[in-house]
Amino acid sequence: MTRRGFTGIGLGAVASAAMQDQRRPNVLFCITDDQSWLHSSVQGSKWIRTPALERLANKGVVFTNAYVSTPSCAPSRAAVLSGQDFYRLGPASMNHTEWKRGLRGYADALAEQGYRVGSTGKGWAPGNWKKVGRQTPPAGREWNNVRLQAPAKGLADIDYAGNFAAFLDSGNKQSPFCFWVGFSEPHRVFESGYGKRAGVTSPQVPAFLPDTPEVRADVTDYAAEIEWADQHLGKMLDRLERMGELENTLVVFTGDNGMAFPRAKGNLYEYGTHVPLLMAWPQRAKQGLRVGEPVSLVDVAPTILEATGAPPLPGMTGRSLLPRLTGVSTKAVREEVVFGIERHFPGSRPDGAGYPSRGIRAGRYLLIENLTPDRNPVGDRPGPVWPSDDPTGGFGDTDGGPSKTVLCRGEARHRELFERAFGKRPAVELYDVAADPANLKNLAGEHAHAGTVAGLRKRLQAYRQRTEDPRVMGKGEELDAVMRAYPTVSAEVSRQQEGGKQK
Q1: Are 252 and 279 in contact (CB under 8 A)?
Q2: Contact yes or no for 18/248 (Cβ under 8 A)
Q3: How much is the average pLDDT of 99-127?
Q4: Of 18, 114, 174, 282, which one has the fewest beta carbons inside 10 Å?
């Protein structure tokens, strides 16, 4: 199938809501950095307080089973912006590379439609978008001049809400706006003890991590950073309400990948790929609705474009969620979601090599195909390039921090969890997510599940062929060439591209 054949997948199923109203909606897109789906009070968490998200949920729709295209920052964000599966994006399919030449995203499209477009915080990153001749960042012109004194060293000093206000106060106020808010939270590094100081209590440690005092403190600090982002979201919603624009603003909140802990971020397991997704457009959307079928973050761009009446972008593989958002249709947009990864951090293995994998979530099951099971899934130890990642060194596709250090100390009681996080993996994995949300019991080798494995592998292969994954189209060398072109990155470059936070 040609790329032209993808244009507008899922669009046009209903008359564009924007066509029913002469006044086009504003767009406020908010994305956290490294937040798994469970970690907000909207998803039932009793120990993380997110009143702004609760407010957003009451005003709109919670997609309870939303998945990234890839659990790695830059390629996940590129997939969101372009509405395409990450593996179609050339160099932008990996961190610390460059934007794909000629690739356009929804922010570019809305700028061409007369929208005022801007961004604050972390946009498309970490990577270089200037190298391919772009004049503005893929997420829009940056508004980062308003700064604050953060209450913890692990928090960015960007006043997200203040910069949003500065953007709103500028330019032609008669034009609708499109604004991207890229929180750096809850990306590492965390200030030790901030969570306790912020009042987070009774943290819940996922079953794939050891429940020790160090890990509980680490999870507590992570939770406090989510609450910090939620406070800024609340201020932005307040500002829109005071302006009388909240009703006609499509607000989207999501995350670029799961929590920065072992076996989560950078992995295809639930805590790496399953992220929050809320959409509210009070003037048009259903309010207080929870949608349980699987959706992908590549569906965000088609949704925004259809809502604003803008034409779809060439090559989009995402499907508009607008019919579900507005209640025009109750039919599921997808039966399954597909995701994958090539490499999280350059330098985790010699010569920039990655660990290409693909996964599919359908029904109660998660199936993963590891295409190079002979390699170490999250990098070698010792790491070729990032020895100072944390006191353990190595395993560079897992961000350094106290939880990683606990696992790497070599204590016998944590040996099984250590092997699950850092040890080699079989070519095929199957998990019953409903019974095993931590994805600890691989069912792929059990005779009783042979039919499930065969069926999911067939569906995964069909999707990859339909969307032209280079690794099934005989073009895997194109992705390998990107890895060789960007085999490593210095710690300083990493900090610069992440806006001060590593990786």
Answers
A1: yes
A2: no
A3: 97
A4: 174
Taking the C-alpha atoms of residue 285 and residue 22, their distance in angstroms, rounded to an integer, is 17
Smallest CA-to-CA distance from 434 within 367, 366, 337 is with: 366
Pairwise CA distance, residues 455 & 297, whole Å: 24
For 195, the token pair is 């969570």
**C-alpha span between 503 and 344 (Å, rounded):** 9
Strand pairing category for 274-275 and 66-67: antiparallel
pLDDT at 213: 97
Residue 290 tokens, joined: 């929870």
CA 442, CA 315: separation in Å to the nearest integer? 35
Q: What is the pLDDT of residues 34-89, one digit of tens each?
A: 999 999 999 999 999 999 999 999 999 999 999 999 999 999 999 999 999 999 99
* Cis bond upstream, residue 213 (ω within 30): no
CATH 3.20.130.10 fits 24-334, yes or no: no
What is the residue extent of each domain of the chain?
A: 24-334, 339-488
Spatial contact of 230 and 53, defined as CB atoms under 8 Å apart: yes
CB 394 within 8 A of CB 410: no
pLDDT at position 503: 44
> What are the pLDDT digits (tens) for 338-370?
999 999 999 889 889 999 999 999 999 999 999
Q: What is the three-class DSSP state of 98?
A: strand
The answer to whether residues 380 and 360 touch, using CB atoms and an 8 Å cutoff, is no
Residue 197's CB is within 10 A of a number of other CB atoms, namely 13
Amino acid type, 19 = M
- Residue 23 has a pLDDT of 87
Strand (E) or helix (H) holding 31: strand 26-32
- Say if CB 422 and CB 378 are below 8 A apart: yes
